[in-house]
Design brief:
By secondary structure, the protein is of the alpha+beta class. Helices cover 18% and strands 31% of the residues. It has one helix and seven strands, in the order αβββββββ. It is elongated and about 100 Å long.
């Protein structure tokens, strides 16, 4: 019986504590009679109609059309020799250069002279290293 009395007492004390916490909140209601829902319900939202645009905003400008320039080049590395074949399919002249980077520190890198590739023109550029080639690429420039 001892266990049941302490359980009954703890239930009684718990119900009294909860009632003490709930009753003050129920008594404190706003004067209008409507229950307050929270801090966001304290002030009604105000919308200024003058700040709403009459039309939707303009779409951003589309990016500029890609400029058609630059010869199409294929680079072939065979051992210590590099060959770049370039074809210009555009109506503007392109100055192309072949750049060769050698793998060995003592082997000099090479940059070719600029060669003009006219519209519908084709050119072949060559370069080499004494030993292995690390990389090769072609640069384009307007005349």
């Amino acid at each position: 019986m001892r266990g049941r009395r302490s359980r009954a007492v703890s239930l009684l004390v718990t119900s009294m504590v909860l009632t003490g916490l709930v009753v003050p909140g129920a008594v404190a209601q706003p004067e209008g009679g409507d229950p307050a829902l929270g801090p966001e319900a304290a002030a009604p939202a105000v919308v200024d109609l003058d700040q709403i645009p009459a039309e939707p905003p303009l779409r951003p400008e589309p990016p500029a059309a890609r400029e058609l320039f630059g010869a199409d080049c294929d680079t072939l590395i065979e051992g210590s020799h590099v060959t770049a074949t370039c074809h210009n399919g555009y109506p503007e002249t392109d100055l192309v250069r072949l750049h060769v980077e050698c793998d060995r520190w003592w082997d000099l890198d090479a940059d070719s002279a600029a060669v003009a590739v006219g519209p519908a023109g084709r050119v072949e550029l060559t370069g080499r290293c004494w030993k292995e080639v690390r990389s090769a690429w072609v640069t384009h420039q307007r005349p």
